[in-house]
Amino acid sequence: MGKNDLVNGKTKLIGLVGNPVEHSISPQLHNTLSMEFSKNLIYVPFRVEEGFLRDAVNGLRAINVLGFNVTIPYKTEIIGLLDEVSEEALLMGAVNTVKNIDGKLIGYNTDADGFLNSFIEETGEGFKDKNVLIIGAGGTARALAVKIAMEGASNIGIINRTIEKAQNIADIVNENVKNVVNTYNFKNLELTNLINKTDIIINTTSVGMYPNIESTPIQVDFRKDQIVYDVIYNPYETKLLSEAKKSGCKTVNGLGMLIYQGIKAYEVWSGVDIRNDLAAKVKNICIEEFK
Ligand code: ATR
Question: Best mutation site among 161, 183, 234, 258 for ligand 1, i.e. most ligand atoms within 8 A of its Cβ?
Answer without folding.
Answer: 161
